[in-house]
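Can anyone check this?
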Amino acid sequence: MMHHSALLLPMVILPLAGAFVLGVLRLATVRERGMAAHHFGIIAAFGPILSFLLALGLLVQINGLPGHDRVLSQSLYQWFAVGEMRVNFGLMADPLAVLMVLFVTFVGSLIHIYSIGYMKGDPNAGAFFAYLNLFLGAMLILVLGSGPLVMFVGWEGVGLCSYLLISYYNDDRANVAAGNKAFIVNRIGDLGFILGLALLFWAIGDTGFDYADLRERAPELTPLLALTVGLLLFIGATGKSAQLPLYVWLPDAMAGPTPVSALIHAATMVTAGVYMVARFSFLYMQSVPAGVIIAWVGILTALLGAIFGMFQRDIKKILAYSTISQLGYMFVGVGLAAYSAGIFHVFTHAFFKALLFLGAGSVITALHHQQDIWRMGGLKKRLPITYVTMLIGALALAGVPPLAGFFSKDEILVAALATGHPVIWLLGILVAGMTAYYTFRLIFVVFHGTPRDAHYEEVTESLRVMTIPLMILAAGAVLAGFINLPPILGGHQLLSHWLGLEAHHSPHIKLELLTILASLTVCAVGIGIAYRRFIPTAVEPVYHGFARFAEAKFHVDELYDSLFVQPLLGAGAAIRRVVEPRIVDGPVQAVVWLYRAGADAVSAVQSGYVRVYAIYMVVGVGLLSFAVYRLLVG
């Protein structure tokens, strides 16, 4: 049974209304430059902050309901009808959706506040903050949609906003290309998502298309149909959440302003795929093979992202590949039906990854937009708040207890062992060690050692409007893991029980102990190797062999360019040179030629001379007379 809530619609409308107001103000002041960047930022922050307060109200409402009946809804209108099917445009919140909107609005609000300082002096800040509000509003529609079609509206909305924000600095052609790449790659994934929805629509076409209706009808799907629909939907997730083979857009997305990177990686777009799989848990429970495939794609993506992260030199791209890798962990969790574990990692990751990206933004602005870690160094003394907060984020990402990343990552690894996937578990442990290495490689190279930047003496700590969000996120990175402590550590997995999803529980305490010990060991080894290589003096490495190949990202972009982009460009050129002029334009031009020839023939007899017309008349009369004669004689 669903209970009505009047909080859902305002929560979505507030950031969308903010985007509209900011857009109007931007257009009104574009010539006069009547508003400073921070004025736009202050207006933009109101919507997310109020939405977060409404999310807290939603939490209170849903906690007041019985444990088996925690669903709030708000039906807006009937969207369309097909035969007997009635599809409503409505909003719905259950414990999963409430958790998502809580951290999306909270982290999103902090990113908006941080952006006030980061975008200081930007002449186009009105457009930036309008896009940022629109991004958050689209994510809320995605999360709170009452059915997959409403989710798809938000799904496409975040794709549009990512394009607008990644290519925000559009005076540089490379940034525009990065935005185009993100948009196009996500359209490829979305084709799979649309096909999956169409197939599901065909299979369950005589009832409603809300999640409640689909949950009731899901057991009717044949195993083959459930597998096909599940994998098609997951193709969409590989685009949005940057998994193999559609991960290639996310590192290039770093072309946008750093707050955009934090919003994409921590609170909005890339979490959409994991959320979608968890939302369709009732479907994936009908097809275990689909879940196993998802888990394997996730762990291989985690491994690939960790390998690339170890050899990158751009501070934001290191964090981008880290996100790809951590998303892989999340898909391992939801793929193995440990949905609570996967969502728990989404939750903790939002804090420490937003912290690391915003910390990177603090470093970048302090060094006049330098992003190469080998041009940094010694910033510990110059940026003390940034250093301490980023160190906390790095410890959480590396999985050092008792920080958040340790608890959520290990819960996923325990699920892999308990469900009979020791190879996935082993690869996950390996990735944990690699993560610790590349994370502290970044920390040691950027903040320790000797300065390598010409602007080092000018470096000062970032504005308070930027450092306060860093401190709040650092507190979240420390505390977020404690809401789902496992019994072995004295907890009761409160988040898992509250979500009410099909959570895995280890059948034996030895599995948890083994995972904890292995995870701590590889974490210590990874940090130790980074310490020995980059403390006290970091020397820029010259890579050879496999390391050089990994630094070049296995040339996957070049491979895709050769296999897909160049053939398509060649096909387009052939169409332009052959098909268009001969097949498309040829018949059209032939009709034009026939009309012209006919006109020329007719114009030839229209000379304008009376003597010529007299000859035509004599000839005509003669022919007519001959015809009459033949008729009479014959």
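Reply from J.R.: I decoded it. The chain has 24 helices and three strands.
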